[in-house]
Design brief:
Layout: E1 14-16, H1 18-24, E2 27-32, H2 44-57, E3 62-68, H3 72-84, E4 87-93, H4 101-107, E5 111-115, H5 120-130, E6 134-136, H6 144-160, E7 167-172, H7 176-188, E8 193-198, H8 207-222, E9 234-236, H9 249-262, H10 271-283, E10 290-295, H11 306-310
Parallel strand pairs: 2-10, 3-4, 3-6, 4-5, 7-8, 7-10, 8-9
Antiparallel strand pairs: 1-2
Helix pairs in contact: 2-3, 2-6, 3-4, 6-7, 6-8, 7-8, 9-10
Organism: Uabimicrobium amorphum
Family: Belongs to the ACC deaminase/D-cysteine desulfhydrase family.
InterPro entries: ACCD_DCysDesulf, TrpB-like_PALP, TrpB-like_PALP_sf
């Protein structure tokens, strides 16, 4: 799969978190996919390079995708579609927050369609049937095409450093990022444990099976025979807190810690939850060796949580 619609600033930086490493007596590095560049950056940019290329291949006039009001995926999809000259439609689940990512969606002239969270899939299909040459991008850009963006991300990581990371940790939600990472790690011969911190899925949802299916689809797309099993997909469900997009003391402490120690900002919905879990695992000696936190972006959502972040 070589065709892509180039919108990302790659490679993204990779560097050690010196102050935090000293504070926690650990060897902690960060991969800065918050700096991919498109509309304030984030991990979805890598996926969209291949999804938008596929949409253009199919002569799409409309792109349809879904998320919540602070969806990083929706913000970046709106930006990529704007650059491709394709009208973007965002099916957003209630409740509505009128700042952060939603402000950017409006500035990018995306057409917004509001509904209950449970009705988003049905709404996307109805839109696809009513619009000419519509191209549907799944939630989070998580299919075999989108996941390929993180197959190449792992190749990029291998080219950036000779260091072998014992653990690679990040926020996981729709599964495409982790599916691509696992495929990429296998393809590159990496021994790293690829660990997603769940921000919304629970063990009962059989998330590992969904990621396995996406990974298999991605392998078919790139015509690579990669030996995969469900056991390759590691997810920690211990840090869901009060629920998706609910800011608790753990996320606030994580945001403050990284800002104060390294002048790097996390977002309240995804990366703060994952980083809170990551730090707790490091402090409890559940993670050791060479550690990489993969920052998947989401910074604009900070501004929608101003009151929560400033409250005691």
């Amino acid at each position: 799969m070589s065709t892509k619609f180039s919108v990302a600033n790659l490679p993204t930086p990779l560097h050690k978190l010196n102050h935090l490493s000293e504070k926690l007596d650990a060897n902690i590095w960060i991969k800065r996919d918050d700096l991919t560049g498109l509309a304030f950056g984030g991990n979805k940019t890598r996926k969209l390079e291949y999804l938008i290329a596929d949409a253009k291949k199919h002569n799409a006039q409309h792109i349809i995708t879904a998320g919540m009001s602070q969806s990083n995926h929706c913000r970046q999809t709106a930006a990529a579609a704007r650059l491709a000259g394709i009208q973007c439609h965002l099916v957003l689940g209630l409740p509505q927050r009128d700042n952060g990512n939603l402000l950017l969606d409006n500035l990018l002239q995306a057409k917004l369609h509001w509904c209950e969270k449970s009705e988003r899939e049905q709404q996307m299909q109805m839109l696809a049937q009513s619009l000419p040459n519509a191209y549907v991008i799944p939630y989070g850009g998580s299919n075999g095409i989108g996941a390929y963006g993180y197959v190449t991300a792992m190749q990029e990581l291998q080219q950036q450093t000779d260091m072998v990371f014992d653990n690679i940790v990040f926020a996981t939600s729709s599964g495409g990022t982790q599916a691509g990472m696992v495929c990429g790690a296998k393809l590159c011969g990496m021994s790293s444990k690829v660990l997603g911190i769940s921000v919304d899925c629970t063990p009962e949802q059989q998330f590992e099976k969904a990621m396995y299916d996406i990974a298999q689809e991605s392998c078919q797309q790139i015509q690579e025979d990669i030996a995969l099993s469900i056991d390759d997909f590691h997810v920690n469900y211990d840090y869901l807190g009060a629920g998706y997009a609910v800011l608790s003391s753990a996320e606030k402490e994580a945001i403050t810690l990284l800002a104060e120690s390294e002048a790097i900002f996390l977002d309240p919905v995804y990366t703060a939850k994952a980083f809170a879990g990551f730090i707790d695992l490091v402090q409890r000696k559940k993670l050791s060796g060479n550690l990489l936190f993969w920052h998947t972006g989401g910074t604009p959502a900070l501004f929608a949580y101003e009151k929560e972040l400033q409250s005691e």
